[in-house]
């Protein structure tokens, strides 16, 4: 093995964003990042949203360093350290169980990491999960680790473990105190439901919402409803949601997704002091969805909201044009050259008179800044193209092209 | 008894609004109006908010009729009928258990009812409770019923039974299927906590929110969290709240009030489709309260919200000026001659022109709220007291000719001091001048009607009047 030591090992990977349809909110262990209930998510396609991370190890590096979106950050930050330590631990374990060689020098080398998102962090699009998943995955490739990475990703950011797989993913809460059984696993692959589409309605955020970590901690400490949700409601919903996904039952999937989003936000409101992630725009989007579904006499679109005002709307491909037209009608884009619709192309459509009448809302111009149209996508990827590396041969971020 | 039969019997009563601090939301029986959990409320002073109801029975009336805020409504409406039937049933029962006389003719007479609020219905100030309590109470006086009126009020509107008492009132959910033990009772009298003040922040409602009856029914049917709340959370909170009230523990009272308001709204959000009664303005008020309390290092003000965006804020009298100043700072009134009316003493009002507010925020707090973006919002503040809440007043209204139903009081926007023992008679030109009737005067200036004396004669009108 010693002859394979390279002066510089560089790996670049990408990892996706995931959106929970059965929500994770609240930890039973802050240190190991173990949740109070299981959760289930949909992995979004990396063509529209992804994190790219390059990790390089070299005997010439004097310290660990990290750059996020071009800016150097504090690598001593506990979550980064937790992830790094876990990967190194796994690397050490692998080599010591494998063959007789002593751990290679590379385990003592310092690492340089650079990471970028292809979507704005300010958009509140849960970049934390993609980022930490990518970090864990990339470091694992650099250190030659091929065991389960749930813990490494989780300890960076809980929901990051769900970004380790494509398609539909569950994070089983586990029962063990050491969290070894708190792992993510794929429920169905990305090819399972090809008609499913995801529309992200990016809403103008007037106020920076309370961060998830502090928020969920306060919820666990103060909300009686949250404990009941975790113990008595979510387990049944996990079973039901898994069933809806496997059966491609959009009615069931959609209704349950909306109910779980609402219940999550209900527990935030039951927190003390109360947390409100939904804005008036969010509520209008909710009303639009219910109105749209009532008009069609069935669940054709379904919303979910994370810890912020952006709406993620699920629907099937044949409904996308009409729903986008409905959004335009209720939230007329403020024309400014910027594209209102990004991502997958969407056929223009007009609203029927009946639907227009049914929507019956005062338009809120500019309420929705833009829409990203995407679909279900694969898990993390390793990039073979050396031009994709974010770090140069000197281990420093390449200047932006 | 027969010799006392009058051709016309008229009684007028007033009844208060109540604000729940442990919320009622959801029925276990739609017909008898039995709740899934108990609730506890604070009765507000009638000088600021009340319903006035006149009921008259006469052998000359050909049918039951009712006018609400000047407009004739359908008396066949189930809730009105439920109340009316219940009172007549109680009247029949009383007389049949009392003496040997047959039920007097008055039980077969038709009744005419007129009812007005001194605050705008559009303000979403829970007029239903005051209205139905007043109806039950007035009818009871007309028919000579003196038994518990909880059922009669409840079947009109659940929370109305809590408006049958002053001070602090609980509505015990009861266990019986027939609802006989689902009654209101006073927890502490109005004199118990003289320093307590209630501020109502009336928010301009952009959208008519979903009505309570349909809303709570949907919640019961669809929200898992609501069932848990009713079974596992509220019972303990009722005990705790009763304790806080009895001990005059404002910290405990305030915190629990806020938590219960939030939990109620949480169950609305957990409903499907979800119900959102809180608007962005409501949420800003919530943040202001938490900011204010954090600044002072203790719970000095506490909010609660019913099924609408208006905020009801509890505080002690010494905190009112500073909190109102904070509200004005964060929600500057649209300059337009807005008046902010504050009641400091029982029955006396104080009208302040904008900018003349006596209290300026002190710099430390000003810095704390400085990061609030000031919101241009139509917000009106009305301050009420809890103390001195007369349960109901008897008052005789003069009836100027039997064919002049309904008549309306001539409301004036400025407070009027009315000497005790004397009652304002409606003027002959009873139609309110445009712009000066109750609703717009309340919204424009947050004034509520002139105070009427707290007690009056209860004499019946002589025949031939």
UniProtKB/TrEMBL annotation, chain A:
The keyword tRNA-binding does not apply. Residues 382-401 are annotated as: Disordered. The keyword Kinase does not apply. One of its GO terms (cellular component) is cytosol. Keywords: ATP-binding, Cholesterol biosynthesis, Cholesterol metabolism, Lipid biosynthesis, Lipid metabolism, Lyase, Nucleotide-binding, Steroid biosynthesis, Steroid metabolism, Sterol biosynthesis, Sterol metabolism. GO terms for biological process: cholesterol biosynthetic process; isopentenyl diphosphate biosynthetic process, mevalonate pathway. Residues 15-184 form the Diphosphomevalonate decarboxylase-like N-terminal domain. One of its GO terms (molecular function) is ATP binding. SUPFAM superfamilies: GHMP Kinase, C-terminal domain, Ribosomal protein S5 domain 2-like. It is an enzyme of class 4 (lyase). It catalyses: (R)-5-diphosphomevalonate + ATP = isopentenyl diphosphate + ADP + phosphate + CO2. Residues 198-382 form the Mvd1 C-terminal domain. NCBIfam families: mevDPdecarb. Catalyzes the ATP dependent decarboxylation of (R)-5-diphosphomevalonate to form isopentenyl diphosphate (IPP). Functions in the mevalonate (MVA) pathway leading to isopentenyl diphosphate (IPP), a key precursor for the biosynthesis of isoprenoids and sterol synthesis. Belongs to the diphosphomevalonate decarboxylase family. This is Diphosphomevalonate decarboxylase. It comes from Lynx canadensis. The lineage of its organism: Eukaryota, Metazoa, Chordata, Craniata, Vertebrata.
């Amino acid at each position: 093995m010693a002859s394979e030591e390279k002066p510089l090992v560089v790996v670049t990977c990408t990892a996706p964003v995931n959106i929970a349809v059965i929500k994770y909110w609240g930890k039973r262990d802050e240190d190991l990042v173990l949740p109070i209930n299981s959760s289930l998510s949909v992995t979004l396609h990396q063509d529209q949203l992804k994190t790219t991370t390059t990790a390089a190890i070299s005997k010439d590096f004097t310290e660990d360093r990290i750059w996020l979106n071009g800016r150097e950050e504090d690598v001593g930050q506990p979550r980064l350290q937790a992830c790094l330590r876990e990967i190194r631990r796994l690397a050490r374990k692998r080599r010591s169980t494998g063959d007789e060689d002593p751990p290679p020098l590379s385990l003592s080398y310092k690492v340089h990491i650079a990471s970028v998102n292809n979507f704005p962090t300010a958009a509140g699009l849960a970049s934390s999960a993609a980022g930490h998943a990518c970090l864990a995955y990339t470091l694992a490739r650099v250190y030659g680790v091929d065991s389960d990475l749930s813990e490494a990703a989780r300890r960076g950011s809980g929901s990051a473990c769900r970004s380790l797989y494509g398609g539909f993913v569950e994070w089983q809460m586990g029962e063990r105190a050491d969290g070894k059984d708190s792992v993510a696993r794929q429920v169905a692959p990305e090819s399972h439901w090809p008609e499913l589409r995801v529309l992200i309605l990016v809403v103008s955020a007037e106020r920076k919402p309370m961060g998830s970590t502090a928020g969920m901690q306060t919820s666990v400490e103060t909300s009686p409803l949250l404990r009941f949700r975790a113990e008595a409601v979510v387990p049944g919903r996990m079973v039901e949601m898994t069933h809806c996904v496997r059966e491609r039952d959009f009615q069931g999937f959609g209704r349950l997704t909306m109910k779980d989003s609402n219940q999550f936000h209900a527990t935030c409101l039951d927190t003390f002091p109360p947390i409100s992630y939904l804005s008036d725009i969010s509520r209008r989007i909710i009303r639009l969805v219910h109105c749209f579904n009532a008009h069609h006499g069935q669940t054709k679109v379904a919303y979910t909201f994370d810890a912020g005002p952006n709406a993620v709307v699920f629907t099937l491909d044949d409904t996308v044009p009409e729903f986008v037209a409905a959004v335009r009608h209720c939230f007329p884009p403020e024309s400014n050259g910027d594209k209102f619709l990004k991502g997958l192309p969407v056929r223009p459509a007009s609203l029927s008179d009946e639907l227009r009448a049914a929507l019956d809302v005062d338009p809120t111009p500019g309420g929705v800044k833009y829409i990203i149209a995407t679909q279900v996508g694969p898990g993390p990827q390793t990039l073979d193209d050396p031009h994709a590396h974010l770090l140069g041969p000197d281990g420093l971020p390449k200047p932006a092209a």
